[in-house]
Specification:
Helix content is 45%, strand content 16%. The protein is an alpha/beta fold and 347 residues long. The chain folds into 2 domains: 197 residues, Spore Coat Polysaccharide Biosynthesis Protein SpsA, Chain A; 121 residues, no CATH class. Helix 7 packs parallel to helix 8 and helix 10 packs antiparallel against helix 11. The chain starts with 27 loop residues before the first strand and ends in a 10-residue tail after the last helix.
Length: 347
């Protein structure tokens, strides 16, 4: 895979701006993105009142009255141009641009997905995080699933988001970022259909910044995954993002998503092909299909301290390699064809 291509034009590039600004206090505005979030959007916007100065809501073709709801909540509403393929990265950049155009730029931007509720006091905790970690360019916290008991896939989302406290390689879609640092790397890469946050964090860290997850609850998220098909599409999207991220930054010092991509292709594509070919040669080779349940048992033992959740994670981690592989192969196919696919949505 070739080295990373140029970043498509997005935000203005203030080349003279220093990467790291001293101090942690400052003005915070918020950028919320969403489509047809309905009551969840109302909860999201309400949770930001009193924590930020201004709200920008970027809508991606809602038909449920989300734009009117956001205006009534006092937000600046941006309608994303849907003549171009929609991505969350485009929406977030458009929100930041709206803040810049309005004037009186903030020091920090709190990014929030419209299906999330900001925890009271989070922004103050995050600003303190910038004070505690002067080299930080991004501060994030714990994203929790609102209804983990609704389905196994909701529980797995909650587990996935429980990343280690301390300096991190990347953040998720909800994070507080220093605006000048964000601008200095020209914001999100708008052509990514997923994985845009880790890709942005790669560039921020290469420029000398640091990403920190602090020990504080940040948002409640409503994954609303109640069907296997939703999990399958979400996992397939992850595989696509792994392969695209590897193509962009896989040769860098962090080998960005190299392991994830190769594991998906090995367990979800190469091994099944080998088993099928050998099984056609001799029936005894069909016993090799046991490699997948044995891997589940190995992981379940490694995660036994998590109880039921560890068992569920073991099963779906192994099963997930199949849609991940399909996603990674889909990226390779699109790249060979020079085709750029649209967003893979799961809800």
């Amino acid at each position: 895979m070739r080295e990373e291509p140029p970043i498509p034009p997005s935000l203005p590039d203030p080349a003279a701006a220093p990467l790291v600004m001293p101090g942690g206090g400052g003005i915070v505005d918020a950028v919320v993105i969403g489509r047809n979030e309905g009551s969840r959007l109302a909860v999201c916007l309400a949770s930001l009142r009193g924590q930020v100065r201004r709200l920008v809501y970027v809508d991606s073709g809602s038909t449920d009255g989300s734009r009117a709801l956001a205006r009534a909540a006092g937000a600046i509403v941006v309608d994303l141009d849907l003549s171009r393929p929609f991505t969350a990265a485009r929406a977030r950049n458009a929100g930041v641009l709206a803040l810049i155009v309005e004037g009186n730029e903030p020091d920090f931007v709190q990014f929030v997905d419209g299906d999330c509720e900001m925890v009271p006091g989070w922004v103050a905790r995050a600003l303190q995080g910038f004070c505690d970690h002067p080299g930080a360019v991004v501060i994030c916290g714990r994203r929790r699933e609102r209804y983990p008991g609704a389905s196994v896939w909701n529980r797995l989302c909650d587990r996935e988001w429980n990343t280690p406290i301390g300096e991190a390689l990347a953040c998720g879609g909800d994070a507080l970022m220093r605006l000048r640092d964000f601008q200095s790397v020209r914001g999100y890469r708008e052509d990514l259909i997923a994985g845009e946050e880790p890709e942005l964090c790669q560039r921020l860290r290469r420029a000398g910044g640091h990403i920190w997850r602090i020990d504080a609850d940040m948002v409640l998220h409503d994954a609303a995954m109640t069907r296997l098909s939703q999990w399958w599409r979400r996992t397939k999207r992850a595989g696509y993002a792994f392969a695209e991220g590897y193509a962009l930054h896989g040769r860098g010092p962090d080998r960005h998503w190299r392991r994830e991509t190769l594991r998906a292709l090995a367990w979800g594509a190469a091994l099944p092909l080998v088993v099928i070919v050998l099984g056609l040669i001799h029936p005894a080779f069909w016993l090799l299909v046991l490699i997948w349940p044995l891997q589940m048992l190995r992981l379940a033992w490694a995660w036994r301290h998590e109880g039921r959740t560890g068992i569920e994670a073991a099963i779906f981690t192994v099963l997930g390699k199949f849609p991940e592989a399909l996603g990674a192969l889909g990226y390779l196919r699109d790249r060979l064809r020079g085709h750029k696919r649209g967003l893979i949505e799961y809800k």
